[in-house]
């Protein structure tokens, strides 16, 4: 399990940007964690470049603001209902964002 949650939004100048919210990751052997960021906002170009270069997770790991150990059931629940306990958002990898992608809540599973 390695799921990222993010919000696609526009800044005050109408430019779309990615606000990283949370990463739920782990496995039965090592356990499960939830990492969250505060104010982790980046341009779509930077987020896509980090993903394609393989530096996305290590870059975000450097600025984790909150980390919590989870049980497998808790991790699964977060993955299903992260955004306000209502939904996980739409599935869309950051590399697939286009100028036409609507703002909203999204998630993707990293390898």
Radius of gyration: 14 Å
Runs in which pLDDT lies below 50 for 5 or more consecutive residues are: none
Helical content stands at 10-25%
Largest sheet: spatial strand order: 4-3-2-1-6-5
**SSE string, helices as H and strands as E:** EEEHHEHEE
Instruction: Give the helix/strand class.
Output: alpha+beta
- Head-to-tail CA distance between termini: 9 Å
Mean of pLDDT: 94
Q: What proportion strand?
A: 35-45%
Oligomer: single chain
Largest sheet report: 6 strands, mixed
Per DSSP, the total helix count is 3
Number of strands: 6
Q: What is the 3D form? A: globular
Structurally, the number of domains stands at 1
What does the model show?
This protein has 111 residues and is α+β, with helices and mostly antiparallel strands. The chain has one domain. It is built from 3 helices and 6 strands. It has helices at 44-53, 56-61, 72-81, and strands spanning 2-10, 16-27, 31-43, 66-70, 90-91, 104-109. The chain is globular.
Topology:
Elements: E1 2-10, E2 16-27, E3 31-43, H1 44-53, H2 56-61, E4 66-70, H3 72-81, E5 90-91, E6 104-109
Keywords:
111 residues; alpha+beta; 3 helices; 23% helix
Quick overview of this protein structure:
By secondary structure, the chain is α+β, with helices and mostly antiparallel strands. Helices cover 23% and strands 42% of the residues.
